[in-house]
Specification:
By secondary structure, this protein is mainly α. The chain has a two-stranded antiparallel ribbon.
C-alpha cells in the first residue's frame, strides 16, 4: 500500500525531488480535473457554427486550466507541497485574467506565426524566448497581481538571478518537456488514436506536463522565500526546509465546504454538508467542518470586527475574501463602516472588475462627506455612475451625478477619462434611432 504521507527536502535541487512533482500530477484529483478540461478542449470543425462555438469553449477551458495551474504554483510558493490539500490562498480574479491573457497571447502568437507561414525557425526562436522568460513572469504573478511588474526588467532579473543555476536548468527542463510533447506524445496520439480521442489524450498530456512545471516554479519561489516579502501576501513564514507531502485521497467537495467557510458563507457550507451526509459521507473531516461552520455561524461579529478583518484582508491583497466578508455582513442587514478610505476604494474596484456591482452605491454613500479631500472621490463616484447608467431606470440619476463630478472636480486626474466617456454618451444619444 502506498504511503499516504512523505517528506520533501526543499534544500535539494528540484531535479532530485522530481518524483514528488510527478506523483502529485498523477494524483486522483489532478488527473480527473485535467481529463475534464481536456474533454472540453476538443476542436470541432464540422461547420462554421461548431468552429466558432468550439473555439469559444476551448478558450474558456484553457483559461480555467491556467487558473488551476496557477493555484498550484501559488500554494507551492507558500510551502504547501501538496497544493490541493488545505488550500487557503484563492487566486484573485485579476490574477486569473492576467495569467489567462498572457497564456492565450503566447498561444495566439504561435498560431499567427504558423498561419502567416514564417517557418519553423521563427516559431522555434519564439518558443525559446517565451520558455526562458515565461517562468519568471509567472513567479512574479505569484507574488503580485501586477502585470506591469511581471514585465519589468529589473524585477525579472531579480527573480531569475535569485537562483540562476536552478532557473536555467528548469527552463531547459520546461523546453525539453515541450519538445517531448510536440515530437513524441502529440504525434503518436494523432497517429494511433481515433478521432476526438486523439485530441483529448494530446491535450491531457500537455496539461499534465504544465502542471509539473507550475509545481516546480512554486518550489523555486519557496526555496528563495527569504528574498521576497511573502508575509505581505498573507503567507506565513516557514523556517522548516523539510516539509510534509500528503497523498491520501482528496474529497473535492470538502474543499468547496472550506471555501464557503473561508468566505463566511456558513449557510451554504451547512447546506452542502447536509447534502453530503444524506449521501453517506460521515467522515471525521466533514464532521469537523460542520462543527466549525455551526460555531462560527452562532457568533455575530460587530461592525468593528468585520471592518478590522476586511482591512487586514485588503492590506494582504486578499480582496476577494474581504469583499465576500463585507457583502455577507451587509446582506445580513448590517451597516458597514470602513477602517480607512482606501478600503472603500479597493472594494469598489473589486466589485467593478468582477461585475458584482449591486452594493457599489452602499460602499460610496457619503464618501465625499467623510473624506472631502480624498484622491479617490471622483474615481469611486464615477464607478457608481457607470453602474447606474446600465439600468435604464437610473440613467437620469447617472447623468446628474456625472455632470456634478465634471462641475465640482474639473482638475481631477480621472477627468480626461470621464470627459471622454461623457462625449461618447452624447454621441450615442444623438445617433438616429433605428425604426423597425
Amino acid at each position: 500500500m502506498a504511503k499516504k504521507e512523505a517528506y520533501i527536502d526543499t534544500r535539494k535541487f528540484f531535479l532530485f525531488n522530481i518524483w514528488y512533482f510527478i506523483r502529485f500530477a498523477l494524483s486522483g484529483q489532478v488527473v480527473f480535473t485535467l481529463i475534464f478540461y481536456s474533454i472540453f478542449s476538443i476542436h470541432l470543425d464540422t461547420n462554421n457554427y461548431t468552429i466558432i462555438i468550439s473555439y469559444l469553449v476551448n478558450l474558456v477551458f484553457l483559461a480555467l486550466f491556467y487558473n488551476f495551474a496557477f493555484e498550484v504554483l501559488v500554494e507551492s510558493a507558500r510551502g504547501n507541497m501538496s497544493p490541493l490539500f488545505d488550500k487557503s490562498y484563492p487566486v484573485s480574479d485579476e490574477v486569473f485574467l492576467k495569467v489567462a491573457f498572457l497564456s492565450l497571447m503566447i498561444e495566439m502568437i504561435l498560431f499567427l506565426i504558423a498561419e502567416k507561414g514564417y517557418g519553423e525557425q521563427v516559431a522555434y526562436s519564439f518558443q525559446i524566448l517565451t520558455t526562458f522568460i515565461t517562468p519568471a513572469i509567472f513567479m512574479v504573478l505569484a507574488l503580485t497581481d501586477s502585470l506591469l511588474l511581471a514585465f519589468h526588467p529589473r524585477v525579472l532579473i531579480k527573480v531569475i538571478g535569485a537562483s540562476f543555476s536552478s532557473y536555467i536548468v528548469f527552463v531547459l527542463f520546461w523546453f525539453g518537456a515541450s519538445k517531448l510533447y510536440d515530437s513524441v506524445i502529440n504525434i503518436y496520439a494523432y497517429e494511433y488514436l481515433p478521432v476526438f480521442a486523439n485530441q483529448v489524450v494530446s491535450v491531457f498530456f500537455k496539461f499534465l506536463l504544465l502542471i509539473i512545471n507550475f509545481h516546480i516554479m512554486g518550489y523555486l519561489v519557496f526555496q528563495n522565500r527569504y528574498l521576497y516579502d511573502l508575509e505581505y501576501l498573507g503567507f506565513k513564514n516557514i523556517d522548516d526546509d523539510i516539509l510534509k507531502v500528503k497523498y491520501n485521497k482528496i474529497v473535492t467537495t470538502h474543499e468547496e465546504v472550506k471555501k464557503h467557510i473561508r468566505f463566511h458563507e456558513f449557510d451554504n457550507a451547512l447546506n452542502l454538508i447536509a447534502d453530503l451526509q444524506r449521501n453517506g459521507d460521515y467522515s471525521p473531516e466533514l464532521e469537523e467542518l460542520k462543527q466549525q461552520a455551526e460555531t462560527r455561524k452562532k457568533y455575530t461579529p460587530t461592525n468593528m470586527d468585520v471592518a478590522d478583518r476586511a482591512h487586514t484582508y485588503l492590506n494582504a491583497n486578499k480582496r476577494r475574501e474581504a469583499f465576500h466578508l463585507v457583502i455577507n455582513h451587509i446582506k445580513s442587514g448590517n451597516e458597514y463602516t470602513e477602517v480607512a478610505a482606501f478600503d472603500i476604494s479597493r472594494l469598489v474596484q473589486y466589485a467593478m472588475i468582477t461585475n458584482q456591482t449591486e452594493h457599489v452605491a452602499h460602499f460610496v454613500r457619503g464618501f465625499h462627506e467623510k473624506y472631502p479631500y480624498h484622491e479617490d472621490i471622483v474615481r469611486n463616484y464615477f464607478s457608481l455612475v457607470q453602474v447606474l447608467y446600465k439600468n435604464r431606470k437610473t440613467r437620469a440619476k447617472a447623468k446628474e451625478l456625472l455632470l456634478t463630478l465634471i462641475e465640482d472636480y474639473p482638475n481631477d486626474r480621472y477627468m480626461p477619462e470621464i470627459l471622454s466617456w461623457y462625449k461618447g454618451l452624447k454621441l450615442i444619444e444623438k445617433a438616429p434611432k433605428i425604426v423597425n
